[in-house]
């Protein structure tokens, strides 16, 4: 069961109880700090890829994995869009409500039904919510059910092939027991407590494009970032 350390940290920061940052670790990387102020960044402080996604958003928006609500607040207050912000973290949703997000819900994307949206946002590696590549079709089909005609899915991710050592021929040394090199076990630590590891995934653009096409989407590369990251747009194929 989740301890919601992510949510506790976000809520602590908002309530003025900020004493330390979140610590994250994965099955292929060492412990690193995730600065809490970064989760509360204003539009001007966001990476170009996120700014681009917010400018491309239109109509009724679903912000998936909304965290502290920074994207939702910009779309709601600066763009005047109707935004539904969802997260599986109770602390994150409590923070969103305190910050003024009008429709913030403690909700699992995969359990949503009965609503549709013009734009579905999956930012800060929102594709990672899929967890494992063998679940990508189920994930994309759920997104399709939530998408209105002529709607769009905007998501960012990264190709983490660079994290693996090169062999003598310039190829990458991927462990034989990895089904896909972008799949990780992700661990969150906060104030001496540790969250049980959970599935996470970074998906390279070509793999995403192939999965999208196989599930009835067109996939467009909108922008590439400075560190193997990218923004993609999925629309239902005609």
UniProtKB/TrEMBL annotation:
Enzyme Commission number(s): 2.1.1.222, 2.1.1.64
Taxonomic source organism: Sungkyunkwania multivorans
One GO term (biological process): methylation
SUPFAM superfamilies linked: S-adenosyl-L-methionine-dependent methyltransferases
Domain Methyltransferase type intervals: 62-154
Protein name: Class I SAM-dependent methyltransferase
Transferase among keywords: yes
First-tier enzyme category under EC: transferase
GO molecular function, one term: 3-demethylubiquinol 3-O-methyltransferase activity
Entry annotated with the keyword Electron transport: no
Keywords attached to this entry: Methyltransferase, Transferase
InterPro entries (alphabetical): Methyltransf_11, Methyltransf_Superfamily, SAM-dependent_MTases_sf
């Amino acid at each position: 069961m989740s301890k919601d350390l992510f949510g506790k940290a976000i809520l602590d920061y908002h309530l003025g109880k900020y004493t330390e940052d979140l610590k994250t670790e994965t099955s292929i990387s060492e412990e690193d700090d995730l600065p809490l102020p970064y989760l509360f960044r204003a539009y001007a402080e966001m990476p170009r890829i996120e700014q681009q996604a917010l400018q491309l958003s239109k109509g009724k928006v679903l912000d998936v994995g909304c965290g502290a609500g920074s994207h939702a607040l910009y779309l709601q207050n600066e763009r005047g869009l109707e935004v539904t912000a969802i997260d599986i973290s109770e602390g994150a949703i409590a923070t969103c409500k305190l910050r003024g997000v009008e429709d913030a819900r403690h909700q699992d994307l995969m359990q949503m039904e009965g609503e549709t949206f013009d734009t579905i946002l999956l930012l800060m590696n929102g594709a990672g919510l899929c967890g494992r590549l063998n679940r990508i079709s189920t994930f994309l089909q759920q997104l399709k059910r939530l998408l209105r005609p002529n709607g769009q899915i905007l998501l960012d991710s990264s190709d983490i092939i660079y994290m693996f050592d090169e062999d003598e021929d310039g190829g990458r040394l991927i462990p034989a027991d990895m089904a896909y090199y972008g799949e990780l076990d992700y661990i969150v630590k906060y104030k001496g407590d540790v969250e049980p590891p959970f599935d996470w995934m970074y998906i390279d653009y070509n793999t995403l494009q192939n999965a999208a096409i196989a599930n009835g989407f067109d996939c467009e590369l909108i922008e590439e970032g400075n560190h193997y990251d990218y923004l993609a747009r999925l629309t239902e194929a005609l």
